[in-house]
Amino acid sequence: MNVWKISLQNIKSKPLYTFLSVFTLALSVALLLGIQQLKSSFEHQIENNLAGIDLVVGAKGSPLQLVLASVLHIDNPTGNISYKEAKKIGKNPMIKTAVPISYGDNYNGYKIVGTTDEFFKLYNAELEKGTTTKKSLEVVIGATIAEKLKLSIGDTFLSSHGLVENEIDVHDDKFTVVGILKPTYQVIDRLIITNLESIWDVHDHDDHEEGEHNDHKKHTNFVEISASNNIENHDGHHHHNEETHADENHEKHTNFVEVSHTDHQEEDHDEHHETEHEDHKHESSEEDKEITSLLISFKNPVALLTMPRKINESTNMQAALPKYELDKLYNYTGIGFKTINWIAYLILIISGMIIFVSLYKMVKERSFDLALLRTYGASNFQLVKMMIYEGFLVVISAFIIGVLLVKIVLKFVFNLDQSGYQGILKTLSFGDIFSIGIVIVSFVLVAIGLSIYPIVTMNVSKILSNEK
Q: Which of 125, 120, 79, 72 is CA-nearest to residue 102?
């Protein structure tokens, strides 16, 4: 007796039950595997982007927001801090590396980050083409940006103010692409990297233009007021005698000479001050500058116990621990993962019930055929095997469909995303797939076990006599 052939014929004879069993079980498999894959990818990506950063120092505010903005680059910063004060913190002997970052502009929605060459080392990023930044307004772009925006070495672009793409507040200074990074599948793939001076120069230039505009408005108003006063003085001259007029002319001439002399002195002083300012420009350039945050790695984990509290209590800055804050983020997102997991298990239970009803109904409806098989020499074990094979054919079909379904859906969803996250999808390990497979097989075995009970307790003579 070919048990496999009989099992296949039984499945074909009840297409509706077979379809419902395979569909619900495949949906359950897809949900369980999909949630596990998303959770693993999410946790792996966050851990990967920590890049050995033990502490983030920034402006007072939400510590989670500071970590999301400075480490994962998915939120707005809490504010700016003094670069001078940040450098003092970075000189602490317990600190291994202290990498400053400054940002506030974007190009086509991709963040422009001013930093040092140490930033590349955090992510083990290597150049695919070109060089690192050597002077102001040079940039190195991530692999995702080069692919999405079709940028290459030597291309130039104008940045926009803010972290969201806009065409209104556009800066005048052009950035030049001098390097392209290899793919790292980390957040640096979606960043435009430049030096700190570029960020400062762009914003200082805007502030300078705004100041000149205000000075020009003041000068225009002054000229208008002076002209008005001259007209009034001219009308008043008709009521003075020649002697008074001569005295006034003499007084005006004297004042004119004094004013001219004063203007000349001020011009000389301004020229001298400008020269002096140029001489000390490099020396004082960083004194009044600001950055967004400081990314710190410690030589010894013991520093985690003392330095954050010291910074929070004795400075106007805050220190946030990325691992601690992201653990809180796991707790927030974990609720959603758990909810979908429970839904998947509920569907799995429903699928098991459908399989049980299908097999049990088949046993009851074909009890006479099964009794005849017994009279032809088939054992109870062979009949039970037939039920088990039928159940496992449904499980195998559903598992294959579920795995293919989750891969297609996740690939489709990630391809729709234009932020370059396609590479973060982590492949499930064999252990994850095996553990989920064990859970599903256990549910199906329970359903099969309940459905074959009538076969084990079958009374062949009674069934055959009743049928006659």
A: 79
Would you say residue 378 has pLDDT above 80? no
Classify 26 as helix, strand or coil. helix
What phi, psi does 161 have (nearest 5°)?
-75, 145
Among 357, 297, 345, which residue's Cα sits nearest to residue 321? Answer: 297
Query: Is 189's pLDDT higher than 90?
Result: yes
- Distance CA(295)–CA(306), nearest Å, equals 17
Burial of 115 (0-12, 13-18, 19+ CB in 10 A): buried
Angle at 203 between CA 200 and CA 206, to 5 degrees: 145
Q: Is-contact 54 322, C-beta < 8 A? A: yes
Q: What is the DSSP string of 72-95?
A: I--S-----EEHHHHHHHHT-TTE
DSSP string computed for 267-284: HHHHHHHHHHHHHTHHHH
Three-class secondary structure of residue 169 per DSSP? coil
Q: Give the pLDDT confidence score for residue 190 in this predicted structure.
A: 93
Res 205: pLDDT = 54
Distance CA 365, CA 371 (A): 12
Planar angle of CA 68, 180, 157, nearest 5 degrees: 80
Determine contact, residues 75/330, Cβ cutoff 8 Å. Answer: no
Q: Is residue 34 packed enough to be buried (19+ CB in 10 Å), middle (13-18) or exposed (0-12)?
A: buried
CA 118 to each of CA 95, 294, 404, 449: distance values in angstroms, whole numbers, following the listed order: 14, 12, 42, 62
CA distance 454 to 368: 12
- Crossing angle for the helix pair 430-451 and 322-365, nearest 10 degrees? 30
Long-range contacts of 37-42 (CB under 8 A, 24+ apart): 37/406, 37/410, 37/425, 37/426, 37/427, 37/428, 37/432, 38/337, 38/410, 39/337, 40/426, 40/428, 40/432, 41/424, 41/425, 41/426, 42/333
Question: Do 88 and 332 meet the contact criterion of CB atoms below 8 Å apart?
Answer: no
pTM: 0.67
Pick from 17-26, 87-96, 156-165, 166-175 the range whose average pLDDT is largest: 87-96
Task: List the structure tokens of 316.
Answer: 């106007």
Q: Are 93 and 298 in contact (CB under 8 A)?
A: no
Note the pLDDT tens digit of each residue in 269-287.
Answer: 444 444 444 444 444 456 6
